[in-house]
Amino acid sequence: MVLCQGAEAAAIAPAAGKEPEGPRGREDGADTGRPCLQPAAGVEAAGAEERRVCGCCPGSPWPRCCKAPGTKKKTACPGLGLFYTLLSAFLFSVASLFLKKIEDVHSVEVSAFRCIFQMAFVLPGLIYYKTGFLGPKGKRIFLFFRGLLGSSAMILLYYAFQVMPLADATVITFSSPVFTSLLAWIFLKEKYSVWDLLFTLFTITGVILIARPPFLFGSNVTGIEGSYSDHLKGTIAAIASTVSAASTIVILRKVGKSVHYFLSIWYYAVIGLIGCVIVLFVMNEWRLPYCGKDRVFLILIGILGLGGQIFLTKALQIEKAGPVAIMRTMDVVFAFILQILFLNHLPTWWTVGGALCVVASSSGTAIRKWKQSSKKAEQNEI
After folding, report:
1. To 5 degrees, how large is the angle CA 136–CA 142–CA 144?
2. By the 8 A CB rule, do 5 and 149 touch?
3. What is the distance of C-alpha 337 from the center of its chain?
4. What is the DSSP letter of 61?
5. In angstroms, what is the C-alpha Rg of the chain?
6. Whole-angstrom Cα distance, residue 159 to residue 236?
7. Which of 14, 39, 138, 139 has the fewest CB atoms within 10 Å around its CB?
8. What HEC string does 7-27 produce?
9. Which structural domain range is residue 314 located in?
10. Phi and psi (nearest 5°) for 40?
11. Contact 298, 289 (CB under 8 A)
């Protein structure tokens, strides 16, 4: 799973589903709808012209709208957004499994390949939507730090996947919503309640159960991959990745919907690729995999990670954020299953306990945010 990107998609998905503002519609015969039975009484000025606005579809030009006779309105498939979320979690988990299977390829190089796939996907979108490559002047500094922190989160996450058990790294990254609430309270002055503090403490407890520091659990730590030194480095990298991903979400909240989704990903991919190339040059680690299987895994990681992000974004466009965040906890379940089946590594009870703490905290945070947004929506309707 690649949470840093899943979290970013969650933060900016509303912007993804929104086309750049432009002329709404024209009554020049280009539309194929039939006359609407509910024209509004008022008129809307549009330059030198005047056009009537549909009474049943706000913003749509009359006499063409979704409620016109003979027009079929698309109905959302119940549970489709949750299915997209489940599919996204599965793709992220499989991509993480392939990352564990790759040999003799540094995590920074894997990140560089991922950035190349992101750029290849986003470039046509930038050209189509005519967003430019730099963005609004007042937002460029935020986009730069979004790219820097987002790419750093990806590199650190990939490193954690390589040096520690798959389930352990996945569970730690799911503490991102809790850190997001804390950072939003500090920098955006958002409300931070006693419940948020409780969820934060639960998350820290879960991370401690997974990390199992020797001063609490003794020197004989079982159920880890390799040495405890590598396990500790992976834990620190996973926590740093989580904080970086949470910082990215806070930045995206600050930017709001004024920047197109594709432009945000573009900064993420370009800055990430530049950073990866510099690091690989300094470390002298850049090399193509010797094994053809590893090359296939690199390509699949890019494709599956991109597919996971697309499905997560689609899910957030048609489903509320609360249910999506809860369904994404299946990522942890997939990580445990894949680790047992393909890596022959049974998680310890400490890991299971830590997973329960982190998943409960993340789900609780998501449910609270969901209820708060629902209450605000009801108040606005009143």
Report:
1. 95
2. no
3. 22
4. B
5. 23
6. 10
7. 138
8. HHHHHHHHHHCCCCCCCCCCC
9. 80-381
10. -75, 155
11. yes
In a domain, 256, yes or no: yes
Cβ-in-10-Å burial (0-12, 13-18, 19+) of 119 comes to: middle
| Start-to-end CA span in the chain (Å) | 41
CA nearest neighbour of 365 among 184, 215, 114, 148:
184
CA 139 to chain centre: 20
How sure is the predictor about 4, in pLDDT bands with cuts at 50, 70 and 90? Answer: low
Helices (H), the chain: 3-16, 80-101, 107-129, 140-163, 166-173, 176-187, 194-211, 214-217, 228-255, 261-283, 292-318, 321-327, 330-342, 349-381
Measured between alpha carbons, how far is 373 from 382 in angstroms, rounded to an integer?
14
Contact criterion met (CB below 8 Å) for 153 and 248: yes
Indicate the pTM of the whole model.
Answer: 0.72
Q: Which two tokens stand for residue 101?
A: 């299977």
User: For residue 128, what are the contacts with CB-CB under 8 A and spacing of at least 6?
Assistant: none
Residue 346 carries which DSSP code?
P
Does some domain include residue 118? yes
Domain count across the chain? 1
Distance CA 40, CA 54 (A): 5
Report the alpha-carbon distance of residue 57 to residue 66 in Å, rounded: 7
Kindly report, residue by residue over 234-285, the tens digit of the pLDDT.
999 999 999 998 888 888 777 776 777 788 888 988 999 999 999 888 888 7
Would you say residue 7 lies in a domain? no
Can you tell me the distance from the alpha carbon of 303 to that of 356, in angstroms, rounded to the nearest whole number?
30
| Per-residue pLDDT tens digits for 65-116 | 554 555 454 555 767 888 988 998 899 999 999 998 887 788 898 889 888 8
Residue 10 lies in a domain: no
Kindly report the average pLDDT of the chain as a whole number: 77
- Cα 116 from Cα 105, distance rounded (Å): 16
pLDDT over 90 percentage in the chain: 12
DSSP characters for 203-234? HHHHHHHHH--HHHH-S---S-SS-HHHHHHH
H or E element at residue 51: strand 49-54
